[in-house]
Amino acid sequence: MCGIIGYVGGRPCRELILTGLERLEYRGYDSAGFALIDEGHGVVESVRAVGNLAELRAAAGEGNGNGATAGVGHTRWATHGRVTTANAHPHASADGSVLIVMNGIIENYLELRSELQNAGVVFASDTDTEVVPQLIARAYDGDLAAAVRAVLPRLGGHFAFVAAHVSEPGRLVAARRECPLVIGVGEGERFVASAIPAFLSETRDVVLIEDDEVVALDADGHAIWQGEERQPARPPSRVDWDEDAAEKGGYESFMLKEIHEQPAALWDTIGDRLRGDGSVELDGLGLDDAALARVERIHVVACGTSYHAGLVGRYLIEDWARVPVHVEVASEYRYRTCLAGPGDLVLGITQSGETADTLAAMRVARERGAHVVAVTNIMGSQATRDADGVLYTRAGLEIGVAATKTHTAQVMALSLLALKLGRLKWALTAAGALDLADELRRIPDAVEAYLRSPAPERVMQAAAAYAERPFFLYLGRHVGVPVCFEGALKLKEISYIPTEAYPAGEMKHGPIALLEEGSPVVVVATDGHVFDKVVSNIQEVRARGARVIAVATEGNEEIERHADDVLWAPRTPALLSPIAAVVPLQLFAYGIAQSRGLNVDQPRNLAKTVTVE
Ligand code: AGP
């Protein structure tokens, strides 16, 4: 949930830390802080501020950090303790000798805190993190790495932290358990961070740290331990990510940029996986075709927008492959009696690969003997390490907290899997698969043409007209249902307007009572076998005075007779319409948030990755 960064090397690192934190801000932006440590002078600058990185920069002023060449930084999403300067990181031990920045949760912190307090230690914050520097300071005997190794087994929970000691100014020591931690290897310098973008502009050579490992870094190298056992040298891997992904590239926000990156995300996710004969190659699933053909049941576990992609995937897999699919939010699945087992395929969909509930649900299923595949956007993420196989989306880095391009890429990846399964199960003919493959290939271009057309501007204008409405109802049927869920989630996330999203057939069983004269109802009314049913529902809500904003397939003239406003979506076959139909709803939510003057990239209370349950 939080972002951490550390640097040790030969360069003054103040700006490296602050720039790195800006790249990690998507992980949390309640408050932020940094500390710089210098040979012979100890901590030369330590600044913490409530708010985002701009607030931290303002609080820090123009200083140069005394040219310090080691430091740590943090951007926070509060879990334990309110959003205050005292609770912002770095946290120090009571004697000031140890500094910590941490992402995650120390679950047994109350017990550790009271033990330390009984021993006379005075705490300065309400956070769970603060027990860590206090414990390390007490364990310290001239070797920070040894002290961290000694303390690590005492810590419960899931976390990644970076520690510094004033007596070892040229060294940082980091550790992780179930939260990401990656080392950046430069010439005479080392970075350590929650995510690669934090240092991507400085080095592309990375080393991943595994669970319960401790790593000590200095300018010339790093050493890794598992328990007390020194690990063999681990050669860095080179990442070829596009650095511009972390920049807005001329757009007013990351979210708008990422909405426009959807054609590329869709193309890249298809990549070379879709063959000319309509067959699909998916490397890395950990199942060969014969084993995949034997799968009788699929469970999908995911959260938020990824869950909505899973709901779309169910329609595709059940229709094309005739395999029953159970889709459930991971936070519920993990605590229910899990009936998945050998022979079942479990898909954990998580763009970040870090969502705590999704990881836990995947583990539960794996322990039961199911084959677990992570559908994720992030190489080397925890989900990829916990799963038996991986199906990558190739959306590129997504910074905006509201997921857009990763969602449509997830739906595309699930479409490819559904097509593959359809052929393996003989539920699709070769000709049928070829047609679907052609339709899938057309989607990125259709979305691109849409985004270049005047349609998005018209969506923005329509959005502006509704920006002050206090409530929106979203309705749809069949594949339009997950589209409604996703459209409504986008609106509430970035505009803070309450929404309800319902299957249209359920409307008369309760939500219709919410409607009054002028209530805006967004109806997904794309072409398909339920179109007429949806039109009936439109008439029912209009009869109660509601204003209907319909999402409809380009060229459908009939809808204009029924709706007050129409948001056009590119034409696709009905089952593939969720990719096309969600784009106008992303723009609609965006337009409303923009009209309300809100920060769409950093909605209140949210963080990009939810690494706590
Ligand atoms: C999406 O707009 C949300 N920010 C959120 O619902 C997100 O989809 C959810 O937290 C799951 O994240 P994941 O895909 O990284 O697991």
Task: Describe, in plain words, how this protein is organized in 3D.
By secondary structure, the protein is α/β, with parallel strands linked by helices. The protein contains 19 helices and 25 strands. The strands form four sheets. An eight-stranded antiparallel sheet has the order 3-2-4-1-10-9-11-15, covered by helices on one side. Strands 5-6-7-8-12-13-14 form a seven-stranded antiparallel sheet. Helix 4 (131-139) packs across helix 5, helix 9 runs antiparallel to helix 16 and helix 15 crosses helix 19 (577-595). It starts with a strand and ends in an 18-residue tail after the last helix. 57% of the residues are buried. The mean pLDDT is 94. 2-deoxy-2-amino glucitol-6-phosphate binds at residues 303-306, 350-352, 355, 358, 401-403, 493, 606, 609-610. 2-deoxy-2-amino glucitol-6-phosphate binds next to helix 9.
What's the quaternary structure here? Answer: single chain
How far apart, in Å, are the first and last alpha carbons? 11 Å
From the alpha carbons, calculate the radius of gyration and give it in angstroms. Answer: 25 Å
Compute the average pLDDT.
Answer: 94
Total helices: the number is: 19
Give the biggest beta sheet: 8 strands, antiparallel
Q: Which stretches of 5+ consecutive residues score pLDDT under 50?
A: none
Keywords summarizing the entry:
613 residues; alpha/beta; 8-stranded antiparallel sheet; 7-stranded antiparallel sheet; 25 strands; globular; binds 2-deoxy-2-amino glucitol-6-phosphate
Short overview:
By secondary structure, the protein is of the alpha/beta class. It contains 19 helices and 25 strands. The site of 2-deoxy-2-amino glucitol-6-phosphate has 16 residues, from α9.
